[in-house]
Amino acid sequence: MNTLQNKVAIVTGGASGIGRATARLFAAEGAAVVIADLADAGEVVREIEADGGRAVAVAADVSSETDCERIVRTAVETFGGLHVLFNNAGIIRRKTALDISVDEWDLVMAVNVRSVYLMCRFAVPAMTEGGSIVNTGSGWGLKGGGNALSYCASKAAVVNMTRALAIDHAAAGIRVNSVNPGDTMTPMLRDEARQLAEDWAAFEKDAADRPMGRAGSPEEIAAAVLFLAGDASSFVTGSALVVDGGGLA
Ligand code: NAD
């Protein structure tokens, strides 16, 4: 287990769901991991340390310029460099143009889109030996979805920013790709059900209608992120990897 031996990685939104599973997998593969989240990531750090890995938690808001600078500085000062950045923190508002407020629209854009730009602004210069950046898009960044206008706009932006970043930073030896999950069993999905006042059973039925007949697990998304983060994907950049059990197909 040494895909990321001697590498330093940042995972945003690493206190929960996909980010948490990825932080644990990165650490198991040898990376020292900085876990940045609004929520307390102390428990994930303790789990990683109990397994013999290295991690540190940073309480931070990825929509804040000063917080993003501090996240990257923590990686460099604590672990001596930076090689992998997983821009994964995100939020969803299940609303249409008719009911989303301007403040909510701006919040979704700030957390999902501005964060990717800000984290890259500070991370790229810190990746002095080259590196890999993985951004979490969504199936809804590649096709439309109902009742989630701001989210769909934000994730389409993430997918295309990924391509633009890949072009801009290829010469510096930095690859940039997006991972695009379908429905994945995380607290976010439960929150969506709550926002829509829908029965959880309706979500499970939706997933059952897809080709593979189920939603994904955070660990299944993390495995794809690890592929993009490590040398196994050394000729892959600017791509949008779909991990959705065939949903988009
Ligand atoms: P989650 O809610 O379990 O985890 C998201 C984490 O991001 C939380 O720990 C939260 O505290 C953190 N976060 C939110 N705003 C933040 C901010 N401003 N600064 C720092 N941290 C912040 O959700 P998840 O399902 O693991 O989602 C992870 C990513 O995957 C998101 O970008 C989401 O849009 C994307 N995604 C999820 C699904 C799904 O079905 N779960 C599908 C497609 C894409």
TrEMBL record:
This is NAD(P)-dependent dehydrogenase (Short-subunit alcohol dehydrogenase family). Coiled coil: none annotated. InterPro entries: KR_dom, NAD(P)-bd_dom_sf, Sc_DH/Rdtase_CS, SDR_fam. Gene3D superfamilies: NAD(P)-binding Rossmann-like Domain. Keywords: Oxidoreductase. SMART domains: PKS_KR. PROSITE patterns: ADH_SHORT. It holds the Pfam family adh_short_C2. Residues 7-188 form the Ketoreductase domain. Belongs to the short-chain dehydrogenases/reductases (SDR) family. PANTHER family: 3-OXOACYL-[ACYL-CARRIER-PROTEIN] REDUCTASE FABG, SHORT-CHAIN DEHYDROGENASES/REDUCTASES FAMILY MEMBER. GO terms for molecular function: oxidoreductase activity, acting on the CH-OH group of donors, NAD or NADP as acceptor. It comes from Kitasatospora gansuensis.
